[in-house]
Amino acid sequence: MKSRAYLFFLFNAFCLLSAKGIDINGRVVELPDNIPSVGARCNLQIADSIYFSTLTDASGIISFSLDSIPAGLNLSIAKENFEPLTEPLSLHDATQFQEYFLNKVTTLKEFSVEANAISTANGNLLYSPPKAIVESSSYAIDMLGKLGIPGLIYNPVSRSVNTPSGSPVILIDGVPASQEDLKYLKPSRILNVEFSEVVPAKFASMGTSLISIRLKKRENGGDFNIQEMNDFTGTAIDAGTALNFHQGFSIWKLSSAFSYRHNDKTYDSQATHYMNENLPLTTLYSAHSPFNYKTNNTSLQYTYAPSADFLLSARYNLSLYNSLRKSFSDIEDSIEGEYNSDSRTHNNSLRNSLNIYLSKSINKSNSIDINVDLSSYSEEYESLSKYLFPASTSIYSNLLSSSRYAMLAMANYGHAFRDQSQLNVTYFLTLSKTKNDYHATGNKFRLNESNQQFYLEYRKSFFKRLWMYLKSGVSTNHIVDNGKPTTYWDNISRMELQWYINSCWNVGANIGYQSHNLSLGLLQDNLTQSSPYLYNTGTPDLKPSSAMGIGVTGNFYKSNYSFYGSALFRKTFSPILTPALYDKDLKAYLSRPENGRYTESYQSYIGGSIWNILNMFQVNGLLQFRHDKVMTKSGWKNSHNSIGGSMALSWHYKKWEIAFQKSFPMLSMNGFSLSTAESYDVLSVEFKPDTHWEFQLSYWYILSKKGWTAKSEVISPEYVYSNERQIHNNKNWIRLAIGYNVNFGSPFKGKTRSRTLNVSDSQSTYQDYVTK
User: What is the pTM of this model?
Assistant: First the structure.
C-alpha cells in the first residue's frame, strides 16, 4: 500500500510589469516535513519547447524572468520519489497563492518521467533518451549513435562519434571529457543530452560542436564496470575498466583502457607517376604490409561540486603508444626494372597531462571559468628502408627523438543580462617548447611558441525562439624557430543564428573566419631521402593559413523520429600544400610544403532516424556529398566530387538485440591528398541476462572479396600517387564482447541513514536533476 505525502508549491510572488518584463519568484516546500525542497526541477514550457529550466536552491527558491506570459505556458515540477506535476500558468495565477499536492512514489521500481525525446532548451536541442534506446545501448557512445542527433556520425569500428565539421566538444556534468569516457558510461545513468552546433567561447579550442551530457544524481556509493572485446582470429583486443565513487560532494573516477591490433594479412597495391620531363618515371608496388600497435591509457579524476554554482575538477592522464609496421615489396619501374624493398618503422610515445577546471557563479548574473592544462610528450620514431636493386643496394634510415612541453590556460568571464542575453570575455594562452633531434643528420630543431587569443562573445535570444551568437577577437602567434622570431596576427570572427520555428522545426546559419597555427614539422629544414627518387624537407618561411566558412542547417524532430540536413562551404586562403617537384640540384623529386592560393570545400548531408517502431525497431540513415577544389600559386588546379553515407537497422526485444550497420565511405580531399574513411558491414547479436552482465556477439562481414579496403591518393602538379590497402584479416571475423557492471553503497556512514539498496533490489540510486 502506497503511503502519501505532499509537495506544495508556494507561489507567493509578485510580477513587475515594466520595460524589463515580468519577474517571477517562488519557493518549493516539502510536506509533511515542511522543509525547503532542494534540487526540484522546474520548467516553464509550451508543448515540447522549454522556455526556462532551473533547480530550486538550498532554500527552495526559484526565479524566472520573462518578457511576457504567453498563452499555453505551463509550469512543470519534478523530483525523484514524487510524481511529476504540470499546471497551466497565467499572470493571474502567478499573483495568487497556490498549493500543489503530489503523490509520493514508494515502490521499489525506478522512478522515471517519460518525456518527449527531443525538445529545446537555452537555444540548443535537448534529447531525453527514450527507454528503448537506453535499454538497447551497451554504453553512452553506442547510445549517441542511435539518438538521431543532426549530423552526428557514429563509427562502430572505432566506437567514436564525429561531425562533418570536425570533432565535438564533450562535457559530462559540465566537465570536459573525452570520447573514451563515453565507452564506459552506462546509458541508464544519463538524464539528458544537449547538442549544439555553436561551441561556447570557453571551449572554442576543443572542437566544432557541443555534446553536453547530464547525469542522474546518485546517492553515496559507486559503480564498477569492466569490459573486454576481442575477435576469434586474435587480431583485435579492447579491454578497459572504470571505477566511480561518490561521497558527499566529491566524485572520484579511475579508468584504464588497453587496445591491441595485429594485422598480418595486409596488402598494398601502389602506383606512382613522376611526370617532369627531366625524370619521367612510373613505379608499381605490390607489398605485403603487416602491422601491429597497442595503446594504454590510464586516467584519475577528482570532481568537487557542492552546488550548481561551484565546480572544481582535476584530471591526470597517462598514455602509452607502441607500433611496428613492415613492408615487403615487389617493385617495377621504368629505370631500374624489377627489384625488391624491405622497410620497417617503429614508434614509441609517452604522454602525460594534468587538467584543472574551475567554474564558479559569483552571483545570479556573473560567473568565471578557469581551465589549465599541462602536458608533456616524448617520442622515438625510427624508419629503415632497404632497396635491393639487381646490381646494388640502397639503404635510407631516419631516427627521430622528439619532445614537447606545453601549457594551455583559459580564463572566461560571463555576465547574464535580464533581457535573455549574455556576454563572455575569454582569454586563451598557449606556451609550448618543442624539440626534434635527427640522429642520422645531426640536425637539431627547437621551436618556442606563445599563442594568445582574446574573444568577445555576445549571445541573445529574441522571442525565446531566435538565438543569435556573435564572436569576435584577435589571435597572435609568436614563434621562435631555432632563434628566429616571427609574430603573426589574425582576426577571429563568427556569427551564428538558430531559429526554433516551432516545436518540430529549427533552422540555423553561420559564418566565420579562423586562422591556423604552424607546426615544427612544417618549418624544419631537414633534408631526408625516403626512396631512390624522393626527398623530403620543411619550409622555414611558411605563412599560417586562414579560412572562411558559411553553413546552413535544418532539423525536423518529433517524439520518435527526426530528419535533418546541412550544407557547408569553406574556403581556405594560403593553404599549406606539399607538392613533389623536380629539383635540379638533387636530380630527384623534392617534397616541400608551400603556401597555395586557395582550397575550397563544399559539404552537404541529409539524414534521419526513426526509433521505437512497434516498441522494438530503429532505423538510421545518412547520405553525404562533398566537392573539393585546390589551386596553387602557379595556377595549377584540381577538383574532386564524392558521395558516401551509412545506414543502421536494429531490433530490440526484452534481453535481446540484433543490429546491422553498413557504411558507404566517400573519398574526401585535403589539399593534394584524397582518402576514404573505414568501410564496414556489421551484423551483431547482443544478450543481457541481467542488469550486471551483458554479452555481445558480432559478425563483421565485408561484401568485397578483397576484405576491408581503403584507398588513398596524391594528385599534385608533377607527382601522382595512389594506394589501395586490403586487410584480409577483417574480411570475415567474429567479435565477442563481455561486460560486467555493478553498483555498491558507501562504506562511510553520514548523519542520515543511507537509502542505497543492495544489488539484488531494483530500486535506482539515481535521481533526476539539471543545472541552470
Answer: 0.76
Give the whole-angstrom CA distance, residue 746 versus residue 754.
8
CA distance 766 to 39: 13
What span, in angstroms and rounded, lies between the C-alpha atoms of 71 and 586?
79
CA distance 145 to 151: 10
Distance between CA atoms of residues 199 and 165, nearest Å: 12
Ranges in the chain, pLDDT < 50: 1-20, 93, 96-97, 106-115, 750-772
pLDDT, tens digit (0-9, with 9 covering 90-100), for 275-316: 999 999 999 999 999 999 999 999 999 999 888 789 999 999
Q: What is the DSSP string of 127-140?
A: E---HHHHHH-SSH
Assign 539 to helix, strand or coil.
Answer: coil
Nearest to 97 by CA among 38, 9, 31, 17: 9
Q: How far apart are CA 78 and CA 747, in angstroms?
A: 30
730 C-beta neighbours (distance < 10 Å), count:
24
CA pair distance 300, 241, nearest whole angstrom: 12
Torsion angle of the four alpha carbons 16, 17, 21, 23, in this order, in degrees rounded to the nearest 10: 20
The span from the CA of 197 to the CA of 510, in Å, is 9
Where b means 16+ CB within 10 Å and e means fewer, 744-759 reads ebbeeeeeeeeeeeee
Residue keyed to cell 539515481: 766
- Is the torsion defined by CA of 559, 565, 571, 572 positive or negative? positive
E strand intervals along 362-420? 366-388, 393-416
pLDDT for residue 9: 38
Return the amino acid letter for 719.
Y
Q: What is the pLDDT of residue 653?
A: 82
Predicted local confidence at residue 103, as pLDDT: 62
Mean pLDDT value across the chain: 81
Residues 6+ apart with CB under 8 A from 144: 152, 154, 161, 182, 193, 211
Question: What is the CB neighbour count within 10 angstroms for residue 106?
Answer: 11
For 228-264, the three-class secondary structure string (H helix, E strand, C coil) is EEEECCCCEEEEEEEEEEEECCEEEEEEEEEEEEEEC
Of the candidates 433, 444, 434, the one whose C-alpha atom is nearest the C-alpha of residue 526 is 444
Burial grade of 311 (CB within 10 A; 0-12, 13-18, 19 or more): buried
Q: All 3 cell numbers of residue 207?
A: 572542437
Element of type H or E holding 298:
strand 291-307
CA distance 363 to 15: 22
d(CA 119, CA 109): 26
